[in-house]
Amino acid sequence: MEEDLVERLTRLPCGRRLLAAAAGHDGVHLVGGAVRDLLLGREPRELDVVVEGDVAPIARRLGAGATIHERFGTATVEAGGCRFDLASARAESYARPGALPDIRPAGIDEDLRRRDVTVNALALDLRGGALRVVEHAREDLAAGRLRVLHDASFGDDPTRLWRIARYAARLGFELEERTAALAAAAVATDALATVSGVRIGNELRLALAEPDPMAALEAAAGLGLAPWLTVDRELAGAALGLLPPGEGRADLVVLAASLTLPAGDADMLLAELGFSAAERAVVRACARAPELAAAMIDDAPRPSALARLLRGLPVEAVALAGAQGAGGPSRRWLEDLRHVALAISGDDLLAAGVPRGPEIGLRLAAALDLRLDGELAGGRDAELAAALQAPPAAGRPGAGTS
Q1: Which of 335-356 are b and which e, b meaning 16 or more Cβ less than 10 Å from the residue's Cβ?
Q2: Domain count of the fold of the chain
Q3: What is the C-alpha to C-alpha distance for residues 124 and 184, in angstroms, rounded to an integer?
Q4: How far apart are CA 307 and CA 295, in angstroms?
Q5: What is the CA radius of gyration of the chain?
Q6: Residues 73 and 123 in one domain
């Protein structure tokens, strides 16, 4: 299984680029999940590289767009549609539970011993093809098992709890018995309280970016990491099915569909986890999905009424409301009605003698209502006539040309 790992790497365009950059250099290793995935016959999701020495020469050979952080001994390269993360080999220690690690230069064997689980503590020498692994790595990989490297693992870095949840979901692996006990003990003693909310938020974002984010959240909830989450696959899946292609944030839809806290509490939690004001605004809007769904069904029989209800709301909130029983109106708004606009503008009404002020918007809103409801035939001339004929109090503030 191991002897052809370099050959497998050459079949990947990014792998060939990496091998070419490493040619003639000793101490350059592909590490972690990339090696694991090659051993499992899968295509790696990322290519992480550890260099015993200076990362800069390899980074520059990988591409002109290399970003090198000499102080930290790391580099990131994006070139030819590939991304490479490089780091100098290091060992680490923790001054206290949950602290960021103190690091020092080391060899590849010590570097592997700082990893999270055995099946990620793997290194492929890109020059000689030799494979280095920690104890239990091969047997755990064959058994589909996640095992931490030492008993203090979750105490040193409690975010590893989130990482093993992601690995379990992505790989379909089970936690080794001792590791499961250590994870339960870490949760019971509130180990995650020793790290910042932003670090936990970063792990939550990574879970939401998994190929199956709902499985990752289920695994996290199963470990007791997020008592404020309950995954509803049917609800989230239906909402994602309504989300317009290329629009909106699928991750925020899944998150909003899974949060069990009241809207205000959820907003405070997400702020602590480092979510931006814009992201939290989307989730707050999604919290209104049940009432929006009821209104779409009961109070918005006409397209113009639907437009007044939904105009200005994030597409994520409309999709989630559609998943809660208002699929037809939600789809109609997202696919059709929200794109309906008038050919005329306020300038046309000013030119026709309508005084500047709120009346302009009210008349445009009245004309747009007619257009949405299919009661306005013709183009600009018909729209202008309808707007001029509309009573000054017609329409509703906030409507308009959409």
Answers
A1: eebbeeebebebebbeeeebee
A2: 3
A3: 33
A4: 12
A5: 28
A6: yes
Same domain, 264 and 375: no
List the structure tokens of 205: 């974002």
Residue listed under structure tokens 């239990």: 136
- The structure's pTM equals 0.88
Residue position matching structure tokens 């007044």: 308
Q: How far apart are CA 86 and CA 44, in angstroms?
A: 15
Q: What's phi and psi for 385, nearest 5 deg?
A: -65, -45
> Residues with Cβ < 8 Å from 344, sequence gap 6 or more?
364, 367, 380, 383, 384, 387
Go through 173-195 and write b for each residue having 16 or more CB atoms within 10 A of its CB, e for each that does not.
Answer: bebbeebeebbeebbeeebbebb
Q: How sure is the predictor about 401, in pLDDT bands with cuts at 50, 70 and 90?
A: very low
- Nearest 5°: phi and psi at 283? -65, -40
In this structure, the answer to whether residues 358 and 305 fall within a common structural domain is no
| Residue at 321 is within a domain | yes
Q: Which domain holds residue 375?
A: 340-402
| Cα 266 to Cα 226: distance, rounded to the nearest angstrom | 12
Can you tell me whether residue 303 is helix, strand or coil?
Answer: helix
Residue 396: which pLDDT band, with cuts at 50, 70 and 90? very low
Q: Does residue 51 form part of some domain?
A: yes
Q: 29: pLDDT confidence band, cut at 50, 70 and 90? A: very high
